[in-house]
Specification:
It contains 10 helices and 9 strands. The protein is of the alpha+beta class. The protein is globular, with a radius of gyration of 23 Å. Pfam families: YdjM. One of its GO terms (molecular function) is hydrolase activity.
């Protein structure tokens, strides 16, 4: 999630737990604690793939943050002026303000290394987009009330309750969407195919399903207001013939660890050289995927790994096209007709099949 959301979540937790005793100081301290795990963004690993896949790593580990919270609790109990606050209360305050940061991140598509240093893939169960105003707003208002009035507990507690209720709604919406998706996948023999179901940008009313199928991948948009209108699959090629060349590079292997099978490969010309790129299909929206990485260049007919990978800047769509797409998404949230087709935003050479009336 974005830093503002993390900050107001930590502030709401801090105010709810210790606001009665510490007032707005609990809110401010909680906000600072909750934003601190993202300080890892200042680390430069010298490689674009490494920078993206190492983010939400050690600084988001439940082991590391629980240990850090325990240390802070011991120091607060020993040195803080508020000597009447028990050690257990300090411990809950510090640990919750810290660990709720990665737990919230794990509810987005990006994935979070909750169990670092264990060698497991990032955890992700996406029920909210990385920026969701409806989740953030109650927290922001609650924290704002606490800072303005000096009552450090009531506003944050209400904001925290409403934001948690929104997550429960988002979880229920995902269950509904997945139930509507299952018959469609069964019809196409894809019931066991790898998939990711996630909300579209800035809402939990319209969801996007991405389903992998060998050299193909399928996209579907499913809204909770679609009623009896069944979802439809749009089919694209993912350049699987280039996958062995990508997996011959260490960054390519790292991306598979990070994104699983949800990668598309393409050979493009960059600075006069044929370059192998990999796109994370989970993040963003068809035609607007922000994570595209260079992996290798073709020399004398052979793919040679790049010494340093790069992240390409919006290779397909300009900012004004993103602004044009957003109203279409809003319209699609309200009704399945007229149909919004993801193929409208994707390069035609990737399109294999689209349903009528696209």
């Amino acid at each position: 999630m974005d830093p503002v959301t993390h900050g107001v979540l930590g502030g709401a937790i801090g105010g709810t737990l210790l606001g009665r005793r510490l007032g707005h100081k609990a809110v401010l301290l909680g906000a600072l604690l909750a934003m601190s795990p993202d300080l890892d963004v200042v680390l430069d690993y010298g490689d674009a793939v490494a920078n993206v896949t190492e983010h939400r790593g050690f600084s988001h580990s439940l082991f590391v943050l629980t240990g850090l919270g325990t240390l802070f609790a011991l120091l607060a109990r020993r040195f803080a002026p508020a000597r009447d606050i028990p050690l257990g209360h300090w411990w809950v305050f510090f640990v919750l303000c810290l660990v709720t940061h990665p737990l919230l991140d794990a509810l987005t598509t990006y994935g979070t290394q909750l169990w670092w240093p264990l060698d497991v893939r990032p955890s992700a169960y996406p029920i909210v987009f990385i920026i969701d105003p409806l989740y953030t707003l109650p927290l922001l208002v609650g924290v704002g009330v606490a800072l303005v009035t000096g009552n450090g507990r009531r506003g944050p507690a209400w904001g925290l309750a409403l934001s948690c209720a929104y997550l429960v709604f988002a979880f229920g919406a995902k269950q509904l969407v997945e139930q509507r998706l299952e018959p469609l996948l069964a019809e196409h023999g894809l019931q066991d195919a790898p998939r990711v179901v996630q909300p579209t940008p800035f809402n939990t009313l319209l969801w996007r399903a991405t389903v992998m199928d060998g050299n193909l991948h399928h996209e579907a948009l499913i809204g909770i207001f679609d009623g009896a209108t069944p979802p439809r699959l749009e089919t694209y090629t993912r350049g699987a013939a280039l996958e062995p060349a990508a997996l011959a590079t260490e960054p390519g292997q790292r991306l598979v660890w990070f994104a699983g099978p949800f990668l598309r490969y393409e050979a493009v010309e960059i600075d006069g050289r044929e370059t192998l790129t990999a796109t994370d299909l989970r993040l963003g929206f068809p035609g607007f995927h922000p994570f595209v990485f260079t992996l290798a260049t073709r020399e004398a007919g052979e793919w040679q790994p790049l010494a340093v990978t790069e992240q390409l800047d919006s290779p397909y769509r300009a900012d004004e096209e993103r602004l044009t797409a957003l109203p279409r998404l809003i319209q699609r949230i309200r009704s399945p007709e007229p149909m919004l087709c993801t193929s409208e935003f994707v390069d035609d050479r990737w399109v294999v099949e689209v349903p009528e009336p696209c």
